[in-house]
Records
---
Amino acid sequence: MMVAPPSIALPSPAAPMPRFRTLALLALTLLVGSVVVVRRPQVVFQEGTGDDRIRIVERSDGVRELYLGSGRGRQTALHPSYPERLELPYTRVAMAGLALVPADGRVLFVGLGGGAMPRYTRWLLPEAHIQVVELEPRVVEVAREWFDFRTDSLLQVHVDDGRAFIEASVPGSWDLVMLDAFSGSRIPPSLATREFLQAVATSLAPNGAVLGNLHTTLPEYDAMVATYQDVFPEVVLLDVPLRRQKILVAGPESLLARDSLLARVRALVSRTDPGFRLEGLVRGGYERARRVDAPVLVDGDGTPPD
């Protein structure tokens, strides 16, 4: 006689258990509670209007940004507690110029802003002699009050017109002149002419160089490059990644040839850690400036000097 197999009771689909809904609600609550509300940048200081306006914005990470005049461009981004950290991309590329300076060399900055680059240079080259010339005394005060800028025996600031200061300098005074002065969002015309650059060339040591921060969107960009080429034997451009900026370096051809510049950058990096990949920036962004069909800027061309 055949015996029927025992029946097996299969579990019926269970209705969702209340505890699952409870866990889901709990997880959602934790997720919402874990969202960090990021504080928006705050204007912590402002005075003046138009081209005379000074504005400082503090981000949630503590970095302070300086805006001068009516333009939107930042003159400085700096965390006061970390002067050895450069925040703006163009300032990192510009530090390639320090590879051209002896350990105890002489560096002149035209334009202070919040003092990020002079402070960084003081940290990276502790034996170098650094001078800064800034036209506006209030900018110097703001750099001290809001960006903890400090001077000492090797880092000094002069409140003066940058052009007049260079023209009065003893020939051969500087190993590197760094031009980073802006009037609003433009380079002052008096700091872009052939006559001014000739004065810069005279103020440089035999193997000295000049470095400028140029925005490629400026209508006079090509003319500025042409003017540097009219005065200096070699002009190279270093690209600022993801920005419409170039760092222009002008000086002796032997100093600025690609292999020579890279060798000097490697020597600098071997002595001290810049905190970022300086050699990679130079290697990837190096370009020998091509001759451009543009007029050379001269004094008295109809643009009033600042």
---
Amino acid sequence: MKNFRLLLFACCLLLITISCNANEQVTTSPPLPPTANDTNTPPPTSTNEMTTNTSDPIFGVSGDGPQTPITSQLVLSHPPRLEETAELTYTVTTAIQTDNTTIQILLPPGAYLLSGETTWQGTLTPEEAVTLQAIISFAQEGNWTIEAKALSPQENGDVWGDSAYIYLYTSDELSHEGFATDENFETTSGNTAPTPPAVDPQPTTP
């Protein structure tokens, strides 16, 4: 009889445990989208101590906006001197299918496009990444920001996306990652990261 009571107690305890586990729910919600007025642009790296060019690639830094299913990576093959060519590669992936996705590389005023693509529109799927490749060159000395972004408007009014930024200084003799901070160097870009406009201009080829 005692063993029967112990068995009955164990069965009741097991049923209570199963019932509690069944009532537990994990709630998830889509990540908040970046907005057109998002100005969370990361600061550039100060590299005024650099004295020689480097052939190492420059990897873009991501914006500080909330994470979404879309992720991206921007890479510049190396910091080119003036009139020297370099390759930009922007790769975008998604965790879920995103329709009406627009992918863009936005070149600064001091750069121009020699070949390749800087825009793409279509459906982004988890099975296949989209990569934009472009050969660019710089015609003006200065501190420059290269921006790339992927945006996908959702039916509820949200916008999923990701962005990346490359900051560099270019000149005839020296080019490097990050802005130059020489007191004698004047540039319209300044020594801090510029704020992206609400509506970005299309890249132009002079």
